[in-house]
Amino acid sequence: MKKTVLAALVLCLALSGSLFAADAPEPIKIGAVFAVTGKASWLGEPERNTVKMIEAEVNAAGGINGRPIQVIVEDDAGLEPNTVNAVKKLVAKDNVVAIVGPTTTGTTMAVKPIAEEYGVPLISCAAAEAIVNPVFKWVFKTPQKDSDCAVRIYEHMKAKGLTKVAIITSTDAFGATGRAQLQAFAPVMGIEIVADESYAPSDTDMTAQLTKIKGTPAQALINWSVGPVQVVVVKNVRQLGMTIPLYQSHGFGNPKNIEACGAAGEGIIFPAGRLLVVEHLKDDLPQKAVLAKYKSEYEAKYKDQVSTFGGHAFDSLWLVIDALKAVGPDKAKLRDYIENRKGFVGTGGIFNFSAEDHCGLDKNAFEMMTVKEGKFMPLGI
C-alpha cells in the first residue's frame, strides 16, 4: 500500500513539473560570437561578460513581453573558420533571431554572406567601415568607423602643425583597413606619409621597421593594430628613443593596454569612445548616464575595468533588445526597426541608422584622448 501511495505521489509530482514546464514561456534566443579566447581575448572577454550581464538584468526584470532572453555565446577564438561554423550553428540549429558580434573585422567579413543568406540581423562589434560600406541588408555595426578615426587623428596633427607622418600597421584585417583609410585621407587633409611599415599580429619585435621610420623626416607616428601587439610597438618606440608624438587607433581603448605599456604608455594620443573618460564628462551630455551606469555595473560585477570593446557589445545587444520590445522576434521586422532607429544613446555615441548608414555614427562620436599618469584622460585636461 505504501509503495502504491509513494508511486502515485511521484507520478503527481512529475506531472505537475511537466505542466509547469509547459507553462514556462520559450526563451527568445539571441546569438553572440566573440573571441573569448585567443589573441583577441582582450576584446572578446569583456564582450562576453557584458552580454551575460545584460541577459541577467533583462530576465530579472521579467524578460521581453513575458519571455526570457537566452544569449547563446560562441567562442570563435578570433579565427575565421570558427566564426563561420559558429554563425551557421546559431542560425541553422539554434534558430536565433539576431546575432551580436563577431569581435574582429576579419571574422565579421567572413560571415557577412551568411547573415545575408539566412536573413538574420548581425550587429558586429568590429570597427572597419568596410563591414557596412557597401551596405549589406542584414549587417550592422556599433563601433565608430575607422575612417572617422583616421580623420580625427589627422585633424589633431594639423592643429599641432604636423604634416609629415609615418604609419605602421598590422597585416590583419583591422590593420589593413586602417592603413587604407590613413592612405586615403592623407592627401585630402594635407598630410604626407613619409614611411609606411607593417608587421604580422604575431610579431614580437618591430625594432627594424621603427629604425627605418626614425631615419625619416616624420613629425608623428601612427600605429594601427589591436591587442597585445600594439604594446610591443609602444615599448620599441621608447627603447629606440623616438620622441615624435605617438598616435594609436581606437583599438587602444582598453585599460589593459595601459597596464601592459607601463611608463612607456605616457603621452600616447588616440580617438576613442567616451566610456573611458566618463568621470570627466559634463553632466548634461546625453551619453553620460548610460556610460556611468554601464561602467558602474560592469566593474562591480566583474571586478575589472570597463573597456570600449565591452561597450560595443552593450550597444549591439541593447539595439536588439529594444527592437524585440518594439516589434517582437520577427527577423525581418527586427532588421527594419534597427535600420530606422534614430537617437539611440549607446556607449559608442548617439546612433542614427538609415538605409544608407548601418553604423549610425559620425566622427563626433570620438573623443581625443591621451595617457596621463597611467590613466586615460581627455586631451586638454
Automatic annotation (TrEMBL):
Signal peptide: 1-21
Keywords: Signal
KW Signal (keyword) present: yes
InterPro entries noted in UniProt: BCAA_transport, Leu-bd, Peripla_BP_I
Entry-linked Gene3D superfamilies: 3.40.50.2300
Alphabetized Pfam families for the sequence: Peripla_BP_6
Keyword ATP-binding tagged: no
Source domain of life: Bacteria
Domain Leucine-binding protein: 27-359
SUPFAM superfamilies in the record: Periplasmic binding protein-like I
Family recorded in the similarity comment: Belongs to the leucine-binding protein family.
Listed name of the protein: ABC transporter substrate-binding protein
